[in-house]
Design a protein that fits this description.
183 residues; alpha+beta; SH3 type barrels; 2 domains; ten-stranded antiparallel β-sheet; globular
Length: 183
């Protein structure tokens, strides 16, 4: 959010949370997350992501990866539809139990809630995607019991350094469903 000061950026976020505004969060790589900002800290933005008028899970984004937040006439119409259809059902229990202090506390709170998570990074040439159960959290990294698209658990878990993490997903339809079919 190069155009805004840190104070202005947080005020904008608070406004969107208070009004339960539908927003488009644009990331530095020009990808976007559509949904409702539900929580923030000095380090992270927590978004209830949407797709085709359904809530699809939570994305955690470090501020350094956020380029801008849009709330325009298109987003206002989406919020109207979500509201009229009774589709805004945020799980405040999960939101409240998720720490956004730092990567360590965040991942520990996800693990404590027994969620599998998806960790993404585009910092390497090939990109990085790890999905699975959180096994261990150290001062600088997290170890994930990764599995592939056939449900096969990898023999060697993935260790991901915090400074390589660009997105964390959890309580999402994909990982909640897929974990039932692991081999």
């Amino acid at each position: 959010m190069a155009d805004l000061s840190n104070k202005e950026f947080k005020k904008l976020i608070e406004k969107h949370i208070d009004k339960v505004n539908f927003v488009k969060t644009i990331l530095n790589d020009d990808s976007a997350i559509f949904g409702f900002i539900v929580k923030y800290s000095d380090e992270f933005l927590m978004i209830e992501e949407t797709y085709d008028f359904s809530l699809t899970g939570i994305k955690i984004v470090p501020y350094e990866n956020v380029k801008s937040i849009r709330h325009n006439k298109f987003d206002k119409v989406r919020k109207e539809i979500f509201t009229e259809e009774g589709l805004i059902k945020l799980n405040h229990n999960i939101i409240d139990k998720t720490s956004l202090t730092d990567f360590g506390s965040l991942l520990k709170s996800i693990k404590k809630q027994k969620f599998h998570c998806i960790i993404e990074s585009r910092k390497k040439k090939t990109g990085y995607f790890s999905i699975g159960k959180i096994l261990e959290i150290t001062e600088k990294s997290v170890t994930i019991q990764n599995y592939d698209a056939t449900g096969k658990i990898y023999k060697k878990p993935d260790e991901v350094l915090f400074n390589n993490i660009e997105l964390i997903n959890f309580n999402d339809n994909y990982s909640k469903t897929f974990r039932k079919y692991l081999k």
